[in-house]
Amino acid sequence: MAGNATAQEKLFALREQIARLEGKSLPGLTAAKREEAAVHPEHEKAKSSQFRLALGVPSMDLALEGGLPLDGITEIRSRLMGDAGAASGFILSLAAHLKIRQPDKAPVLWISDVVSGQEAGLPYSVGLRQFGLSPQNILYASPRKLDDALWLAENAVASGAFSATILEIRGNLRHFGLTESRRLGLRAKAAQRPLFLLRHAGKEEASSASFRFLVEPAPAAGRRLPDGSLLGGSIGHSVFRLTLEKSRNPAPLSFLLEWNLHDRQFSLARDAGETFSSRKEPAHPGPRLPAPVDRQDRTPVVGTVVALERAS
Amino acid sequence: MRLTALDEICEGLGLKRGQGLAEARAMFPNIDVADEDGAADRALIEAIADWCDRYTPLVALDGGEGLFLDITGCAHLFGGEEALLKDVLARLLQMGFDVKGAISSSPGLSWAICRFGRGGVISGERMEEALISLPVNALRLEEETVASLCKLGLRRVGDLLHLPRASLARRFGTRLLLRLDQARGANEEAISPRRPVAALSAERKLAEPIQAEDGILQLTGQIAYSLKPGLEARGAGGRVFELVLFRVDGRVFRITAGASQPLRDPSRISALFSERLNAVHDDFDAGFGFELLRLNVLQYDAFEISQDDFTGNGRGEISLADFVDRVSARLGVDCLRIAEPKQSHLPERAEVFVPAIMARPVQRKVEEIFAFAPRSERPLRLFRHPEPVEAFAATVPDGPPQRFRWRRLVHEVVRAEGPERIAPEWWLDGQDGEERDYFRLESNTGRRFWIFRQGHYDAGKVPPTWHMHGIFS
Is B422 on the interface with A (CB under 8 A)? Predict the structure, then answer.
């Protein structure tokens, strides 16, 4: 009997350890936590929200289980390099939002590869200041090799000197797989600092990020006049079309998020739903005006060859 | 072709420098001749000079044929002048150099004794006596002066010493008197050291050479600890450190590392070098080990002592400075940068990137206040060099285009804001800078761009050009 009990105890301890490694909650642990929460409710609440960045949008925070983790990796990817504006905009708005929530002097580190800088331009400090980030609080690192970039990211997260570390890469790289991402994730967990991974023109890939967003550009909200109406034809606050691809929720979730850079807060875009008609193909594709032949976007040939004519 | 240098055997045969090669070959057909390689000779003497740094920081080259060491205040570290000279000569002989050396109180006399005397240490009282017996060409004079002195029968320096100075100067020029005074020590002659003297320096001699990187770093930490009192006495902390490693076989490695904040802490100084050693790993060959390590402080700044509070919040700043130092040491100072605002309303001139290790917080605040803060929106990402754009169906004269082609893709414009006119800076660009009209455009895919038109639509003029300058979120 005694042997059975010790074996069970061992099993339970191992289970607990696995759960802790995976960051999941175990029935026994949750029960203990609940008990503690019953004794000190406000204390427990503060503890759980300390490492979460709530976006201030209830439906989204619910899907994110309280917010983005501040002690782990969050991946943000875009389908095309051309969407770099939206992707970096979302990530910088997160950084600015984080700054509002935690007004300490710790800067943000932006690690970018050379190609992204050439393709999409370098972050512009005057624009960043308008976006809510003080330029003296951002450090830019431009390592030449991926190894250096990973070393930088790992050390930056581990040093605890940065309120957020942003690692910008392009595409799915062979030498940045699950092992490297797991390593970064563990560092972030140990140092309790967030790492945002910005992947331009990337595919879905297994990683140790707890959440992964797909960012696409969306038409901006119009400028609001003092009486509350919209100014037609104006380009106001940025709107991002986000798809929560990876989370504990089984179904991918999609919404339009607006970043108000004056109030520095997120909100759901009001005219969600009616946008994105422009992305669809026209109902009756017909031949367009012929374009010059030496260009990439010339009109594709209409129709398919069903049978070739007889030669003779 | 002429002979420029001779070995002992050839000198014994009676060959002279400056002799024609054909003549020498005719006299001694079996001599070996090699082409002179000035660069290699220079590299060799530089390497020996580097090695001599172990005795004194003030080492100067004397043409390509000798070295001057200013050992003022250093001799006692090696057990006196006699022992120092013996040590230098013995070690150089072990390396295979037959060297003559002399120590005296003037560089001119040492030079003369090395070349025309027997070397050794000449004390202050014996200076005159040593000088008297030397030939006049020991005075570093031009050939003609030496020749005309010899013609007059003045073959020894002693013959010149008691002649009236005025007539000597009249006949042979003031240079002779200058050289004479320099040799006697009456006229102070400055030597020009190869390297600036470090503000502070500490070293450790090792009986057993070390090879391992860990050992080097540990020793660096110990040496840095002995630098601490010196830095504290000055109220300073080091900004640039140099670690000099003397290898057993005479090669010298110099590794420099910078810090973003004045440093005193030995562990942080040795951490700097740990990253540097990683970075220079390929060029760093420990060979049979290092016998002497020296840590120099090349630059120092006032050390601000900040008081920690009980919550320990000061930790963040230290770890940031530490991170900046380590990255700069490992990946180069240009890897980690920070944007400094500048007073300019041209978008690309409104910021410059400076290495984070050199950023000065105080100066930045002033610039921040006076920096131009535009009221209209600026893009998140800016292209350093505006890229050409093909614009179609732009509203004449000053409207946005309906469509544009950028990087071979056509974008349909749905919404546009602008123009915002930015005039050229005539104080920099001159009179012919063209003004730009900026537009914020949103394409049908929801992407937002910042493009500008340079020039105007005007009859009989070149059409304006369109450029992409940035992208919005």
Answer: no
